Amino acid sequence: MTCNVALLKGGFSAEREVSLASGTASAMALRDAGYNVTEIDVTRDIPSLISQLQEAKPSVVFNALHGQWGEDGCVQGLLELLELPYTHSHVLSSALAMHKERAKALVEQVGVRVPESKSILASDLAMGDPLPRPYVIKPLSEGSSVGVHIVFEGDNHIATSREELGFEGEIMVERYIPGRELTVAVMGDRALAVTELSPKQGFYDYEAKYTDGKTDHIIPAQIPAEIYQEALDAALKSHQVLGCQGVSRSDFRYDDTADGDGGLYYLETNTQPGMTDLSLVPEQAKHIGISFSELCAWMVEDALRIKEG
Ligand SMILES: Nc1ncnc2c1ncn2[C@@H]1O[C@H](COP(=O)(O)OP(=O)(O)O)[C@@H](O)[C@H]1O
Ligand SMILES: [Mg+2]
Protein backbone atom coordinates (compact mmCIF):
# COMPACT_ATOMS: atom_id res chain seq x y z
CA MET A 1 0.00 0.00 0.00
CA THR A 2 1.34 3.46 -0.84
CA CYS A 3 2.02 5.69 2.11
CA ASN A 4 0.32 9.09 2.03
CA VAL A 5 2.58 11.98 2.94
CA ALA A 6 1.32 15.55 3.35
CA LEU A 7 4.17 17.97 2.72
CA LEU A 8 4.03 21.45 4.26
CA LYS A 9 5.91 24.17 2.40
CA GLY A 10 5.98 27.94 1.99
CA GLY A 11 4.63 29.36 5.20
CA PHE A 12 4.67 33.04 6.05
CA SER A 13 8.08 33.70 7.57
CA ALA A 14 10.97 35.62 6.03
CA GLU A 15 12.11 32.25 4.67
CA ARG A 16 9.01 31.50 2.61
CA GLU A 17 10.87 31.32 -0.72
CA VAL A 18 13.53 28.97 0.67
CA SER A 19 10.82 26.71 2.05
CA LEU A 20 9.00 26.58 -1.28
CA ALA A 21 12.25 25.41 -2.87
CA SER A 22 12.90 22.86 -0.10
CA GLY A 23 9.33 21.60 -0.33
CA THR A 24 9.29 21.18 -4.10
CA ALA A 25 12.62 19.33 -4.08
CA SER A 26 11.66 17.07 -1.15
CA ALA A 27 8.27 16.24 -2.71
CA MET A 28 10.02 15.13 -5.88
CA ALA A 29 12.50 13.03 -3.90
CA LEU A 30 9.68 11.39 -1.91
CA ARG A 31 7.73 10.55 -5.08
CA ASP A 32 10.90 8.96 -6.48
CA ALA A 33 10.99 6.85 -3.34
CA GLY A 34 7.41 5.68 -3.96
CA TYR A 35 5.39 7.86 -1.58
CA ASN A 36 2.11 9.47 -2.48
CA VAL A 37 2.72 13.16 -1.72
CA THR A 38 0.19 15.96 -1.28
CA GLU A 39 1.95 19.33 -1.27
CA ILE A 40 0.31 21.98 0.89
CA ASP A 41 1.29 25.63 0.50
CA VAL A 42 0.94 26.97 4.03
CA THR A 43 -0.48 30.48 4.36
CA ARG A 44 -1.98 32.43 7.25
CA ASP A 45 -5.29 30.68 6.54
CA ILE A 46 -4.96 28.07 9.32
CA PRO A 47 -8.51 26.66 9.00
CA SER A 48 -7.69 25.91 5.36
CA LEU A 49 -4.43 24.20 6.39
CA ILE A 50 -6.36 22.01 8.81
CA SER A 51 -8.95 21.02 6.21
CA GLN A 52 -6.26 20.31 3.59
CA LEU A 53 -4.50 18.08 6.11
CA GLN A 54 -7.72 16.27 6.95
CA GLU A 55 -8.50 15.78 3.27
CA ALA A 56 -5.02 14.41 2.47
CA LYS A 57 -5.40 11.73 5.19
CA PRO A 58 -1.63 11.45 5.61
CA SER A 59 0.11 8.71 7.54
CA VAL A 60 2.81 11.28 8.18
CA VAL A 61 3.50 14.98 7.57
CA PHE A 62 6.76 16.07 5.97
CA ASN A 63 7.54 19.51 7.37
CA ALA A 64 9.50 21.55 4.80
CA LEU A 65 8.79 24.89 6.50
CA HIS A 66 11.56 27.19 7.72
CA GLY A 67 11.67 30.08 10.17
CA GLN A 68 8.95 31.55 12.36
CA TRP A 69 5.81 29.39 12.86
CA GLY A 70 7.25 26.49 10.85
CA GLU A 71 10.48 25.91 12.76
CA ASP A 72 9.77 27.29 16.24
CA GLY A 73 7.29 24.73 17.60
CA CYS A 74 4.07 26.39 16.43
CA VAL A 75 3.22 24.18 13.44
CA GLN A 76 4.55 21.26 15.47
CA GLY A 77 1.95 22.06 18.15
CA LEU A 78 -0.82 22.13 15.57
CA LEU A 79 0.27 18.73 14.24
CA GLU A 80 0.29 17.36 17.81
CA LEU A 81 -3.28 18.59 18.26
CA LEU A 82 -4.27 16.89 15.01
CA GLU A 83 -2.46 13.72 16.20
CA LEU A 84 -0.42 13.54 13.03
CA PRO A 85 3.16 12.22 13.15
CA TYR A 86 5.64 14.60 11.48
CA THR A 87 9.25 14.78 10.41
CA HIS A 88 11.98 16.76 12.20
CA SER A 89 12.00 18.10 15.76
CA HIS A 90 8.94 18.32 17.99
CA VAL A 91 7.50 21.24 19.97
CA LEU A 92 10.00 21.74 22.78
CA SER A 93 13.21 21.10 20.83
CA SER A 94 12.03 23.31 17.96
CA ALA A 95 11.30 26.19 20.33
CA LEU A 96 14.57 25.75 22.20
CA ALA A 97 16.73 25.60 19.10
CA MET A 98 15.03 28.67 17.66
CA HIS A 99 15.98 30.68 20.73
CA LYS A 100 19.73 31.03 20.17
CA GLU A 101 20.51 32.09 23.74
CA ARG A 102 18.62 29.21 25.40
CA ALA A 103 20.04 26.74 22.90
CA LYS A 104 23.59 27.88 23.64
CA ALA A 105 23.03 27.61 27.39
CA LEU A 106 21.97 23.97 27.04
CA VAL A 107 24.65 23.06 24.56
CA GLU A 108 27.32 24.59 26.79
CA GLN A 109 26.17 22.28 29.61
CA VAL A 110 27.24 19.23 27.61
CA GLY A 111 30.72 20.61 27.11
CA VAL A 112 30.44 22.33 23.74
CA ARG A 113 32.24 25.69 23.47
CA VAL A 114 29.99 28.66 22.66
CA PRO A 115 30.89 32.33 22.10
CA GLU A 116 29.96 34.55 25.02
CA SER A 117 26.91 36.65 24.44
CA LYS A 118 24.12 38.51 26.14
CA SER A 119 20.58 39.40 25.32
CA ILE A 120 19.60 43.05 25.43
CA LEU A 121 16.94 45.26 23.92
CA ALA A 122 17.75 46.59 20.47
CA SER A 123 17.12 50.09 21.78
CA ASP A 124 19.98 49.64 24.31
CA LEU A 125 22.45 49.60 21.42
CA ALA A 126 22.07 53.38 21.27
CA MET A 127 23.85 53.56 24.66
CA GLY A 128 27.11 52.22 23.27
CA ASP A 129 28.87 48.94 22.68
CA PRO A 130 27.33 46.17 24.81
CA LEU A 131 30.45 43.99 24.31
CA PRO A 132 34.04 44.69 23.30
CA ARG A 133 34.35 44.88 19.52
CA PRO A 134 34.17 43.04 17.23
CA TYR A 135 30.77 41.57 17.99
CA VAL A 136 27.70 40.29 16.17
CA ILE A 137 24.13 41.53 16.58
CA LYS A 138 21.42 39.03 15.80
CA PRO A 139 17.73 38.55 16.41
CA LEU A 140 17.11 35.93 19.08
CA SER A 141 14.94 33.86 16.81
CA GLU A 142 15.08 34.17 13.03
CA GLY A 143 17.00 32.05 10.59
CA SER A 144 18.94 32.51 7.36
CA SER A 145 21.18 35.40 8.48
CA VAL A 146 18.13 37.66 8.24
CA GLY A 147 19.37 40.61 10.22
CA VAL A 148 22.82 39.42 11.35
CA HIS A 149 25.05 42.50 11.71
CA ILE A 150 28.75 42.54 12.54
CA VAL A 151 30.25 45.53 14.34
CA PHE A 152 33.98 45.81 13.62
CA GLU A 153 36.64 47.84 15.39
CA GLY A 154 36.59 50.83 13.06
CA ASP A 155 32.85 51.03 12.35
CA ASN A 156 31.54 54.41 13.42
CA HIS A 157 27.88 53.67 13.11
CA ILE A 158 25.87 50.94 14.82
CA ALA A 159 22.46 50.10 13.47
CA THR A 160 19.89 50.50 16.23
CA SER A 161 16.55 51.16 14.55
CA ARG A 162 14.10 48.61 13.34
CA GLU A 163 14.57 49.95 9.80
CA GLU A 164 18.31 49.39 9.87
CA LEU A 165 18.42 46.16 11.85
CA GLY A 166 15.39 44.52 10.28
CA PHE A 167 14.16 43.51 13.75
CA GLU A 168 13.56 45.00 17.17
CA GLY A 169 12.91 44.00 20.77
CA GLU A 170 15.12 41.42 22.46
CA ILE A 171 18.32 40.74 20.57
CA MET A 172 21.54 38.85 21.14
CA VAL A 173 24.98 40.39 20.98
CA GLU A 174 27.75 37.84 20.65
CA ARG A 175 31.52 37.91 20.49
CA TYR A 176 32.69 37.78 16.89
CA ILE A 177 34.66 34.60 16.20
CA PRO A 178 37.14 35.17 13.38
CA GLY A 179 38.10 32.37 11.06
CA ARG A 180 36.12 29.75 9.24
CA GLU A 181 32.55 28.62 8.92
CA LEU A 182 31.66 24.95 9.47
CA THR A 183 28.39 23.07 9.47
CA VAL A 184 27.46 19.52 10.48
CA ALA A 185 24.27 17.59 9.74
CA VAL A 186 22.88 15.01 12.14
CA MET A 187 20.61 12.23 10.95
CA GLY A 188 19.16 10.31 13.89
CA ASP A 189 22.10 9.23 16.01
CA ARG A 190 24.77 9.95 13.43
CA ALA A 191 26.68 13.14 12.56
CA LEU A 192 27.23 12.94 8.80
CA ALA A 193 30.20 15.10 7.82
CA VAL A 194 31.78 18.53 8.26
CA THR A 195 31.42 21.05 5.44
CA GLU A 196 33.38 24.28 5.33
CA LEU A 197 31.42 27.17 3.83
CA SER A 198 33.71 29.57 2.20
CA PRO A 199 32.04 32.78 1.06
CA LYS A 200 33.46 34.20 -2.14
CA GLN A 201 33.37 37.61 -0.39
CA GLY A 202 32.34 39.18 2.90
CA PHE A 203 30.55 37.08 5.49
CA TYR A 204 28.12 34.26 5.03
CA ASP A 205 24.88 36.14 4.56
CA TYR A 206 21.45 35.46 3.20
CA GLU A 207 22.42 36.12 -0.38
CA ALA A 208 25.52 33.98 -0.19
CA LYS A 209 23.50 31.18 1.37
CA TYR A 210 20.95 30.89 -1.38
CA THR A 211 22.59 32.17 -4.53
CA ASP A 212 24.37 29.52 -6.48
CA GLY A 213 28.06 30.20 -6.81
CA LYS A 214 28.46 32.65 -3.92
CA THR A 215 29.84 30.11 -1.46
CA ASP A 216 32.09 27.14 -1.91
CA HIS A 217 31.07 24.03 -0.01
CA ILE A 218 34.24 22.17 0.91
CA ILE A 219 33.35 18.63 1.95
CA PRO A 220 35.07 17.13 3.84
CA ALA A 221 36.32 20.35 5.45
CA GLN A 222 40.09 20.70 5.23
CA ILE A 223 40.72 21.09 8.96
CA PRO A 224 42.79 19.12 11.49
CA ALA A 225 41.38 15.65 12.14
CA GLU A 226 40.78 16.37 15.83
CA ILE A 227 38.73 19.50 15.04
CA TYR A 228 36.75 17.52 12.45
CA GLN A 229 35.93 14.92 15.08
CA GLU A 230 35.16 17.59 17.68
CA ALA A 231 32.67 19.23 15.28
CA LEU A 232 30.94 15.87 14.59
CA ASP A 233 30.69 15.16 18.34
CA ALA A 234 29.51 18.69 19.17
CA ALA A 235 26.74 18.54 16.55
CA LEU A 236 25.50 15.19 17.84
CA LYS A 237 25.61 16.35 21.48
CA SER A 238 23.73 19.54 20.57
CA HIS A 239 21.07 17.58 18.66
CA GLN A 240 20.67 15.30 21.67
CA VAL A 241 20.65 17.89 24.46
CA LEU A 242 18.07 19.97 22.59
CA GLY A 243 16.01 16.80 22.09
CA CYS A 244 15.93 17.08 18.29
CA GLN A 245 14.35 14.40 16.09
CA GLY A 246 15.20 13.27 12.59
CA VAL A 247 17.55 15.64 10.83
CA SER A 248 19.17 18.80 12.20
CA ARG A 249 22.18 20.90 11.19
CA SER A 250 24.46 22.77 13.56
CA ASP A 251 26.57 25.78 12.58
CA PHE A 252 30.02 26.48 13.98
CA ARG A 253 32.87 28.95 13.69
CA TYR A 254 36.41 27.68 13.74
CA ASP A 255 39.13 30.13 14.74
CA ASP A 256 42.18 28.42 13.30
CA THR A 257 44.50 30.96 14.93
CA ALA A 258 43.40 29.92 18.44
CA ASP A 259 45.93 28.12 20.62
CA GLY A 260 45.79 24.33 20.67
CA ASP A 261 42.41 22.84 19.97
CA GLY A 262 40.36 25.67 21.52
CA GLY A 263 39.07 27.23 18.32
CA LEU A 264 35.72 25.55 17.64
CA TYR A 265 32.57 27.46 18.67
CA TYR A 266 28.94 26.41 18.33
CA LEU A 267 26.58 29.05 16.89
CA GLU A 268 23.20 27.41 16.48
CA THR A 269 21.20 24.35 15.52
CA ASN A 270 18.77 24.49 12.63
CA THR A 271 15.94 22.06 13.23
CA GLN A 272 14.48 22.59 9.74
CA PRO A 273 17.61 22.83 7.59
CA GLY A 274 17.36 23.58 3.88
CA MET A 275 16.40 20.69 1.63
CA THR A 276 17.10 22.07 -1.85
CA ASP A 277 19.67 20.87 -4.37
CA LEU A 278 22.09 23.49 -3.05
CA SER A 279 21.50 22.47 0.51
CA LEU A 280 24.08 21.24 2.95
CA VAL A 281 22.28 18.30 4.56
CA PRO A 282 21.52 16.47 1.27
CA GLU A 283 25.09 17.19 0.21
CA GLN A 284 26.54 15.63 3.37
CA ALA A 285 24.21 12.65 3.03
CA LYS A 286 25.38 12.17 -0.56
CA HIS A 287 28.98 12.39 0.65
CA ILE A 288 28.45 9.30 2.82
CA GLY A 289 26.47 7.45 0.16
CA ILE A 290 22.85 8.35 0.99
CA SER A 291 20.90 9.79 -1.95
CA PHE A 292 18.49 12.71 -1.55
CA SER A 293 15.59 10.36 -2.10
CA GLU A 294 16.88 7.89 0.51
CA LEU A 295 17.36 10.74 2.96
CA CYS A 296 13.77 11.99 2.56
CA ALA A 297 12.42 8.44 2.83
CA TRP A 298 14.43 7.89 6.01
CA MET A 299 12.94 11.07 7.51
CA VAL A 300 9.40 9.83 6.82
CA GLU A 301 10.09 6.35 8.20
CA ASP A 302 11.82 7.83 11.25
CA ALA A 303 8.75 9.98 11.99
CA LEU A 304 6.53 6.89 11.72
CA ARG A 305 8.89 4.95 14.00
CA ILE A 306 8.67 7.66 16.67
CA LYS A 307 4.89 7.45 16.53
CA GLU A 308 4.99 3.69 17.03
CA GLY A 309 7.82 3.81 19.58
N1 LIG B 1 29.73 35.00 16.78
C1 LIG B 1 29.94 35.02 15.47
N2 LIG B 1 31.19 35.22 15.00
C2 LIG B 1 31.41 35.27 13.67
N3 LIG B 1 30.47 35.16 12.73
C3 LIG B 1 29.19 34.97 13.14
C4 LIG B 1 28.86 34.88 14.53
N4 LIG B 1 27.53 34.71 14.63
C5 LIG B 1 27.04 34.67 13.37
N5 LIG B 1 28.04 34.83 12.47
C6 LIG B 1 27.88 34.81 11.01
O1 LIG B 1 26.52 35.00 10.68
C7 LIG B 1 25.95 33.83 10.10
C8 LIG B 1 24.54 33.60 10.59
O2 LIG B 1 24.53 33.43 11.99
P1 LIG B 1 23.73 32.25 12.71
O3 LIG B 1 23.90 32.42 14.17
O4 LIG B 1 24.11 30.94 12.13
O5 LIG B 1 22.22 32.63 12.38
P2 LIG B 1 21.23 32.26 11.17
O6 LIG B 1 21.88 31.22 10.33
O7 LIG B 1 20.03 31.77 11.89
O8 LIG B 1 20.99 33.55 10.49
C9 LIG B 1 26.89 32.71 10.51
O9 LIG B 1 26.81 31.64 9.62
C10 LIG B 1 28.24 33.43 10.51
O10 LIG B 1 28.77 33.57 9.20
MG1 LIG C 1 23.08 29.66 10.81
Number of helices: 10
Q: Give, in order, the helices and strands.
A: EHEHEHHHEEEHEEEHEHEEHH
Span between termini: 21 Å
- Structural Rg: 19 Å
CATH class of the largest domain: Alpha Beta
Task: Give a written overview of the molecule.
The protein is of the alpha+beta class and about 300 residues long. The protein folds into three domains: about 80 residues, Rossmann fold (3-Layer(aba) Sandwich), CATH 3.40.50.20; about 110 residues, D-amino Acid Aminotransferase, Chain A, domain 1 (2-Layer Sandwich); about 60 residues, Dna Ligase, domain 1. About 35% of the residues lie in helices and about 25% in strands. A five-stranded antiparallel beta sheet has the order 10-9-8-11-12. A four-stranded antiparallel beta sheet has the order 4-7-5-6, with no helix packed on it. A three-stranded parallel beta sheet has the order 2-1-3, with helices on both faces. Helix 1 crosses helix 10. The chain is globular, with a radius of gyration of 19 Å. The two termini are about 20 Å apart. The mean pLDDT is about 90. Bound molecules: adenosine-5'-diphosphate (ADP) and magnesium ion. Magnesium ion (MG) binds next to strand 12.
Sum up the structure in keywords:
single chain; 309 residues; alpha+beta; Rossmann fold; D-amino Acid Aminotransferase, Chain A, domain 1; Dna Ligase, domain 1; five-stranded antiparallel β-sheet; four-stranded antiparallel β-sheet; globular; binds adenosine-5'-diphosphate; binds magnesium ion
